[in-house]
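Hi,

I'm pasting everything inline rather than attaching a file, because the server keeps stripping attachments. The sequence lines come first, and each chain or strand is labelled.
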Amino acid sequence: MSNQAAPTVCCPSLTERRVPAEAAAVLAPAFKALGDPVRLQLLSMIASAESGEICVCDLTPAFDLTGPTISHHLRTLREAGLVDAERRGTWVYYRARPAILRQLAALLTVTPAEADGRDCS
Amino acid sequence: MSNQAAPTVCCPSLTERRVPAEAAAVLAPAFKALGDPVRLQLLSMIASAESGEICVCDLTPAFDLTGPTISHHLRTLREAGLVDAERRGTWVYYRARPAILRQLAALLTVTPAEADGRDCS
DNA sequence: TGTCTGTTTCGACAAACGTCGAGACAGCGT
DNA sequence: ACGCTGTCTCGACGTTTGTCGAAACAGACA
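And the predicted assembly:
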């Protein structure tokens, strides 16, 4: 099931200091994987699954796309280290990797000092 | 300087409920803009600038890329709503838009309930 | 063993992307 | 008015991406 290594760079916010080229090279592919609406929804369906995992057979029919296309997007998420896959009998189950999600969130977190204020308005 | 509208969708985490197609369509382009190492560094340099803004003339020499290429990446960041640009005399200054960064961070934030634990290890 | 279903791989194609050089535009200083 | 410098736009290029259909692989079940 060939899961790739998850990035191991760490954690200060984008806004605190300039992210070095090596860190950018490692983190950017994860953001790139999130940069497609289908993959964003796939990851969300996986990460929000009640049991912590979800079957490809539940993912595929949720989109107007062929099986191979969904499989391709799932592979992209896997190679970005965002999800893990496990085959159990006939079906393949995907689960999210919270550690890397947290890392990306931390990168994007804005120190509350810097104003201009309201999100969600 | 033609700044595009920033996404106005809001805020629950990826992991809480499935992100709807319309939200994904709006948010994915912002992640896509972050999905290139050069743009990630550009945004970081902009967002971490002491005065809150930084001149293109300070950005360009930090990379082994031509002016037009840097300009193209900056335009991508602008169109994704991640930064704002303002011309003052000869120079053009860029500043980050914290609201959308916060929104993206919120989307990626994992509810501490879901374990598997340690980031930054 | 054979066949059926679920999933992935392969090959192809059009569209989008990252990069460049050449040229255009905007202000400043003479 | 002219030229100089900083920035952006345009056109071109090779590469990567998203999608598909066809085919391969994996496990279940008769």
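Residues 55-57, 60, 67-68, 70-72, 74-75, 87, 90-92 of chain A lie near DNA strand C (CB under 10 Å from a C1').

If the labels don't parse on your end, tell me and I'll reformat.
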